[in-house]
Structures are given as structure tokens and as C-alpha cells.
Amino acid sequence: MNVEPRAGSAFPPIADYGFLSDCETTALVAPNGAVEWLCLPRMDSPSVFGAILDRDAGTFRLHPDGADVPAARRYVPGTMVLETTWCTRSGWLQVLDVLLMGPWHHDTERSGSHRRAPTDYDADHVLLRVARCLSGQVQLRMECAPVFDYGREPAHWSYPDGGYRAARASGGGSELLLTTDTNIGFEGSLATSRTLLKEGEWRFVALSWSEHAPPGNVDEALERLTWTEHHWRHWLDRGDFPDHRWLPYLQRSALTLKGLTFAPTGAIAAAATTSLPETPGGERNWDYRYSWIRDSALALWALYALGFDWEANDFFYFVAEAAEAAAGHLQIMYGVDGRAQLDEEVLAHLDGYEGAYPVRIGNGAYDQAQHDVWGAAVGAIYQYVRSRDRLDDRLWSIVVTQVEAALEHWRGPDRGPWEVRGEPQHFTTSKIACWLAADRGARLAALRGDEKREDRWRRAAEEIREDVLAHAVDDRGVLCQHYATTALDASLLLMPIVGFLSPDDPRCRATVLAIADELTQDDLVLRYLVEDTDDGLSGEEGTFTICSFALVSALAVIGEVDRATALCEKLLGSASSLHLYAEEIDPHSGRHLGNFPQAFTHLGLIQAVMNIVRAEKRAARR
Length: 622
Prior knowledge:
Elements: E1 18-21, E2 26-29, E3 34-39, E4 47-49, E5 59-64, E6 72-75, E7 82-87, E8 91-103, E9 121-145, H1 148-151, E10 153-154, E11 156-158, E12 166-171, E13 174-180, E14 185-187, E15 190-198, E16 202-208, H2 218-237, H3 247-259, E17 261-262, E18 267-268, E19 291-292, H4 296-305, H5 309-326, E20 333-334, E21 345-346, E22 360-361, H6 372-386, H7 393-409, H8 428-448, H9 451-471, H10 494-498, H11 506-518, E23 520-521, E24 524-525, E25 543-544, H12 545-557, H13 561-573, E26 584-585, E27 592-593, H14 599-621
Antiparallel strand pairs: 1-2, 2-3, 3-4, 3-5, 5-9, 6-7, 7-8, 8-9, 9-15, 9-16, 11-12, 12-13, 13-16, 14-15, 17-18, 19-20, 21-22, 23-24, 25-26, 26-27
């Protein structure tokens, strides 16, 4: 259920945006046909269309004149092509939106950005919009108003040739080329066109930002659209999906994760956006267009589980490069290009989505002390090596560095898995992550035949486990958020999944069931109770959807399969109409909150669904 944000709000609900990607940049398309988010040339670059954060920060709309609400929207099956259908008084219109993919462009020179092995395909750096009149006749309108540098630099339009079919927008040192088979006119910083389509007729509009030529006519536009459709279907065909009633959710999640992947480095961005609010109208607004190391082990698990080994390996190499460069000082996140410095800045000129202020770019948490990074890095290497049964010298060196860093620091406090901006604490999940580094490191040491390290790291893992069980367990036998509280924390759902305690251990079951019963609203899971946690912020937040999917997995692992299945059904029913998820869901309204679409949520969905599928198969064999 997607509920309107606020009465009279000019902003669409977050869940109602369509998501486009060419694996280098991403775009969000509102239901009224407006592209309201596009950053160029990368997904973490400054925006040229930013109306999702301020209605004056740039938009690009293609729609039937006089219509705001479409009759239907969907993805062309198996693709990242968004199809919007409109019904007007005079006819029906279909619009197809896509960020084009093409063949590899750099046969005679290097790209300058790719660190992973190039494939047969590449981003075309073209946003293509194609319209077709299905019946009757429809007046088609186009309005393109880019505002460069996050809404700070309005576009200056000019004609590059003697006609009206192409226009160039410049500003802030950037240029865009708009090409179409309609006649373009200018109204200040707005480029506009209007044309009548009759039944069976097509029109196209292409926005491009590189040396690669856009389509020159509608036939070429349709040909390149078809090529892109085939590309996405061929990619999806490589996957290994179960023949299950939840297949569409798995496939859309896989496509979304691929869309959030920055192909030149293999990094997976946490989300496509910045500063979409976790609290409506509040200050919990962060930039998520970066790659979190803590996501790595789950990302590899999910991608390997679905058969996308190439993508898993590319992301693994990105993490390995970061770990190697950082030695024992691995950050919690990096830019998708691998850069380490992500200084946070407030964009005071932007009002924010529905007035949620401040709007931030960069992320000040990048240099926080968080002890889960070492467990994530070693866990990622363990996932990678499991599929090969071989650990080379380079990776082994990284393992040694990360495990030793975890063992050096695990006794100290940190900011915890949620990057709180309050005082450091002895967060239980951080200790478990250090245990994970030592435990998986010991297993890898056994594979290397390094008996001394294997023995020392196993003993260290046991020491960490004993410390946690001595200081983090309350009188009920429930593991708590940190050593100085009895508050619950949803991150502890990780415990049975990674094997910190056996699923049959009473403390494991008690913790999972306590979170399920006490840290939920309408069955959906909160990260923590804000009144019990010093996170340095004000306001409430919605339920964290990754945590709800983690509860599904944890319930399945401890044998509560019926309860896990019921919760999974409910969560899948909360997806957007396009099967996408933001970071959070308001349990009272069903409204999606936070950055969108959220990679971590889709990773959690894949893990939860696969755990249910496996549990159902086990039950069927009995």
C-alpha cells in the first residue's frame, strides 16, 4: 500500500518512482512522466535533475497534454525499461523510458575508468524516451529543465545547428545534448516541444552527455531500445532462480542490484539517492550513493545464491582493493570509484523532499570507528574462497591484516552497526563482527595450512564469544544492544545467520523471538527504539525493511518457518507497484521512507526468500 505523503504535497510518494540504470548512472521517474533525479556522469555525481529534493532543482517531463496520472506503469518484463501508459479523452499513449546500453565502446583506446574486466556491453550515456500513440490521437508535451550542480546552475540553451530538432544545454562546466523528432523551443532555462501523435505514430526524445552519438531518428531509437531490452533479458537469463511463486520479486531485486552496481569498479551503491528522509520532515537524511563494506558479505551471498558469480566477483575485487589499500584501517564506506574521502556538506539552497532538511551530500560517517568492517571484509573473502577452495597469497595477506585489526580493537567501544552519532558504546553486534573475522579467518587459515594462526584465531573467537555472553545477555537470556543497556537491537538478528550461536541455543531463540515480539510495529522490525538509544539525532523513524527481512531469515533458521513465511508474504505485499523498496516502511500507513531503491533491502529480500524456499524444500522431503 503506497499512501500519499501529505495532503496537498507536490512530491510523489517515494515508492511511486521508477528506477532506471545503465550501471554507471541512475535515474528516478515520477508517475507524471517527470525524471526527477539524474546525476551525471556517475550515480554519485552532482544532479542535473533534482526535483525529488526541491521542485526547482530540475526536471525532464514527457507526457500527454493535460494528464498527470497514468493508467498503468510497469517494467517491460525482464528489463530495466519503464513503460507508462496514459489514457486521455482523445486517445491512449505509451511512453518507454530507458538508460541505453550498447556494445563495448573502447576497442581502440582505454576507457580510463574501468578497473574490472570490460564485458561485451557498455553504458551508452543516453537517456531515451520513446512515445507511441496506441489509439486515437494524443497531444505529446516535452519539458526539459536541467539545473546543474544540485540545482545551483540553471541551463543555458542553444541550437547546435540550423534546425529545431536538437538543443544544447550548458551550465556549471557541463553540457547536455537534447535530440528529438519534434520541434524544440526555449522558454528561459526550459526547452519544450509539443506535437500531435495519431494512432500508430512514434516520437522520441534523447538526452546524452558523452561523445557517443544519441539516436538520430525514431527507427534508430527503437533499434537501440530493443538492443537494451535484449541486454537486460540476456543478463537475467544467466541467473539461477528457483521456480517459485516469489520469482518476480527475486528477479526484480536482482535487476535492481545490478542497476545499483557501478560497472567500472564493481562497487554496489547502497541506494540511488541522497537525503530522502527516514523521518517525514525530519533531519535523518543521508547520502547513500556510496558502497558500504558491511554490505559485502550479504551481497556476495545473495549474488552467488542466484548464480551471478561475475557480479559477485567484481564486487569482491572492489572490497579486496579497498582492504588492501587500507591495511588495518578499513573504512565503513567508499565512493563507487573507490575514493576514501567523502566529506559531508549541507546543500542549504535545497528545501528537501517534503521539507525534510538538511539535504546532505557526502557522508560524515565514512571515518567513524566501526568494528564490523573487519568481519565484513574477512566474511567476504570467505564467501569468495568457498566457491573456489583456493586462497592465494594476496587474499591471505588481506585476511591476516583484517583479522589482526579486529583482534586489536574488539575490546574497545565503537559507533555500532547503525553509525550512531551519539557516544561510542560496546555494541554487541560489533563484537560479533569481530568474532566473525576471527572465526572465518581461522577457517581460511586451515585452508592455507597455517596451524598456528588457525589455533590462535579460534581461541580468540572463543574469547570474544565468552565476553559477549558474559556482558550482553540480560536476565531473560536475550542478547542486548550493548554492554550498558538492556535495549534490543535488530542487528542481532545476524547472530543465528552467521552462526555465532547455534539456532537451538536458548539464548539465540530468545533473542530472535524478543526482537520479533518487542521491537516491531505491526510485525515490521525497528532498528532500535530511539528513546532507548543515544543516536545523536531527534525524531522517529520507520521500520527498517532490511531488518524485517533479516527477521524472516532468522525465524527460518531457528525453525519458525510458518511465522517466517507469513512475515515474508506481508513484506512482499509492501513492495512498490514496481516491486521496489526504500530503506524503511511506515508500519501505520505502508509509506516507504528513506533512500530509494535500497540495495540492502533487496539483498535482505533475496536472502529471506531463498531461506524460505530452502525450508520449504526440506519440509517437502520429509
